[in-house]
Write a structure and sequence with these properties.
By secondary structure, the chain is an alpha/beta fold. Helix content is 64%, strand content 9%. The protein folds into two domains: 279 residues, P-loop containing nucleotide triphosphate hydrolases (Rossmann fold, 3-Layer(aba) Sandwich), CATH 3.40.50; 215 residues, no CATH class. The relative contact order is 0.11.
Length: 658
């Protein structure tokens, strides 16, 4: 079954991550065994290992209410419970964004709920996730599916609050009230703002996170969903109903919040045209029904402005039934397996490639550099051995001559090191400049000023002005950083050029510092801010409330971009010079060793044989290290199983399994 396939692929992905982490651990051991260990590098590896263990693949489901998001989740992922696990019903059911995951830290199964009142404060959901103070945690009894179903009902609870309270919470929708004859005194609002459900289902244990969202303007009222959770998901499934077609509210949601997911060519946005069983007509032949469904897919694709290949006609309901009752024909007809195949064969591999590239970009060059350094030491030792073996030990003047030559070389070496230090100082000046533009304390001052100004003017116009000014300043800073980055790159290039001329050593190239990624992220953030601010779906009465909330989530992302860009500049400045520093150190060690050898033999402090034995021992040590580093390099660069022709892929699978 497709869901087993997804499970199997997730399992293989988890094994792959564990293997990479194990190899990075070996590299860490290697670094720790070095004379002057590089603590920062060791910490960086620690971070990568940590990020591999916390890595998740997030699939989000968005749609208007009652399109069948929750039913679809039940059908794709939880049919093995032989029932409808998550509550799905006619009308509005899911009340708050719900994440299903496996918490590897807590390990206990739970439902964790964040009260709706937390909307009144400035704290984002992401911040709440780091601090459990406000959450209500309920245990989840996984051994009994009945009890689980019962427990999940808590998530969909609502409560009655006064109109004033609903307004304060930013949850009273003026537009809806317009249809009512009289404005109600009390309204129903969701009891919870966010839910986290953790239990040890194999898919969730494999790192899958499923995000179920409520319909009915949820995307409008909780900006963090549109600014953070959806853009960071690896796949977004937008669900439509074949019975309703693309309605105006479906279209608004698509235009304002969903289609942006695929901007910049990003893959992973899929459209499920659900409830096709409502078109199954016993009185028509199956070809006619199929062609009607096809026709609706084509018109849906046209309305949304997307390729028809990304529209999947499905019946979540029949798919779930087919799985529970083991009716293969019904399951096939539900169209579910096709959608599931895209998740396992496209979305997951794409994610794995990204993680693999991140590991290679983050540490690949450094590991290669260590390996090259060990290889240089190995070659140097071999050369010394040859020199010793061919040396006429009785010829003192010859030894004196060799010593003098080597000392001269040492002096030249030292001048070059001085030159290197001077160029390095210039480079560090540029780095400092960039970091001043990315300084978080300065950004915070700017944020406070804008915030004050926005709070002073509660009109939409004032809010807009504040937001524009906010982005003007940070974009100016980003432009300055990019400009200085190009100067820093030039400095780095010239350091390398000189280094190659002086040492004529292996042709290593410096990595280029690019701020493009952060510029793009900031542009996207500004774009989303603009779209959100001007959106017609901003139907909530207390508009300034929502904009203020939105500003807060925008700000936290801008801070995050600054912090990451700052760190990138820092890492670049350090790691780009490491290859040179390592080569310099290796050259120095080699020179020192030669002087040592010659002096000892000249002073007859040691027999040539003793020294040769010693060198042979070092040679064996270097050989063992080289072998280990080669293995680490291979493990990290190993092609992924789905990037291989079938026969090789099988081999890799077996290797990962063993
Ligand atoms: N006929 C038919 N009904 C379906 C199908 N999928 C879901 N439904 C029904 O549609 C209704 C809504 O389904 P839900 O899964 O609760 O929809 P939702 O999108 O999660 O809705 P909210 O949680 O309110 O946002 C339920 O009564 C489901 O049984 C389907 O494939 N065919
Ligand atoms: Mg639902």
């Amino acid at each position: 079954m497709e869901e087993e396939r997804l499970s199997q692929q997730l399992h293989e992905y988890a094994l792959w991550k564990a293997d990479v982490a194990r190899n990075l651990g070996l590299y860490q051991n290697f670094l720790e065994s070095q004379d002057n260990e590089d603590n920062e590098l060791i910490l960086r590896i620690e971070d990568i290992i940590e990020s591999l263990s916390t890595d998740r693949i997030v699939i989000a489901f968005v749609a208007e209410f009652s399109r069948g998001k929750t039913e679809l989740i039940n059908a794709i992922f939880f049919a093995d419970y032989k029932r409808r696990l998550l509550p799905s019903d006619v009308g509005r059911t899911t009340m708050c964004p719900t994440e299903l995951l496996y918490d590897h830290v807590s390990k206990e199964s739970y439902i964790r709920l964040l009260p709706i009142e937390t909307r009144l404060e400035d704290t984002s959901i992401a911040e709440h996730k780091r601090n459990l103070d406000y959450w209500t945690t309920l245990p989840l009894q996984v051994e009994s599916p009945d009890k689980m179903v019962e427990a999940f009902k808590e998530v969909v609870k609502v409560k009655r609050v006064s109109l004033e309270e609903a307004k304060r919470l930013g949850l009273f929708i003026e537009d809806m009230a317009q249809h009512l004859e009289q404005v109600p005194e009390y309204v129903e609002v969701p009891m919870w703002r966010h839910a986290l459900i953790s239990f040890p289902h194999p898919l969730l244990k494999g790192g899958l996170v499923i995000l179920d969202t409520p319909g009915l303007n949820a995307l409008g009222t909780e900006p963090e969903l549109t600014v953070d959770m959806l853009p960071n998901a690896h796949a977004v499934i937008f669900v439509l109903g074949a019975d309703t077609g693309v309605t105006k509210t479906d279209m608004d949601m698509w235009q304002e919040h969903v289609k942006v997911f695929s901007s910049g060519g990003k893959k992973g946005l899929l459209v499920a045209l659900n409830k096709i069983d409502t078109m199954w007509d016993e009185l028509e032949n199956s070809e006619t029904v199929a062609s009607k469904i096809k026709g609706q897919c084509v018109s849906t694709a046209k309305t949304l402005g997307i390729d028809v290949a990304t529209v999947f006609p499905i019946s979540a309901h029949k798919g779930l039934l087919g799985k529970v009752k083991h009716e293969a024909a019904l399951l096939e007809r539900s169209g579910l397996p096709k959608l599931e195949r895209v998740l396992s064969d496209e979305i997951l591999p794409q994610k794995q490639r990204i993680v693999r590239d991140r590991v290679i970009n983050g540490i690949g060059a450094t590991i290669k550099m260590s390996r090259d350094s060990v290889k240089r030491n190995y070659d140097g030792t071999r050369q010394q051995l040859d020199e010793l073996q061919s040396l006429d030990v009785k010829n003192n003047s010859m030894i004196a001559h060799l010593l003098q030559m080597t000392r001269k070389e040492t002096i030249i070496y030292e001048t070059r090191v001085e030159n290197f230090q001077t160029s390095r100082a210039l480079l560090m000046k540029h780095v400092k400049e960039m970091q001043e533009f990315l300084n978080i304390t300065e950004l915070d001052k700017h944020i406070t000023a804008i915030r004050k100004q926005m709070e002073g003017s509660w009109t939409t116009g004032g809010m807009k002005k504040g937001m524009t000014q906010f982005f003007e300043q940070i974009r100016y800073n980003m432009t300055q950083v990019s400009y200085t980055a190009s100067k820093a790159n030039e400095s780095m290039q010239s350091i390398y050029k000189r280094f190659h001329e002086d040492f004529g050593l292996v042709d290593i190239k410096p990595s280029i510092l690019s701020m493009h990624h952060y510029d793009m992220r900031m542009d996207n953030l500004a774009k989303r801010a603009e779209e959100y601010r001007d959106s017609t779906a901003m139907t909530v009465s207390e508009q300034s409330f929502v904009i203020k909330k939105f500003f807060i989530s925008i700000v936290s992302h801008a801070r995050d971009i600054f912090a990451k860009a700052f760190q990138e500049v820092e890492n670049w400045s350090k790691s780009s010079l490491v290859p040179i520093a390592v080569q310099l150190k290796d050259s120095k060690t080699a020179l020192q060793r030669r002087i040592d050898n010659l002096q000892r033999i000249r002073d007859s402090k040691e027999t040539v044989e003793g020294r040769i034995d010693e060198l042979n021992q070092s040679l064996a040590d270097f050989e063992a290290r080289l072998k280990q580093l080669n293995e680490v390099c291979d493990a990290i660069h190993k092609p992924l199983s789905f990037d291989q022709p079938p026969a090789e892929a099988e081999d890799i699978k077996q290797q990962t399994a063993s």
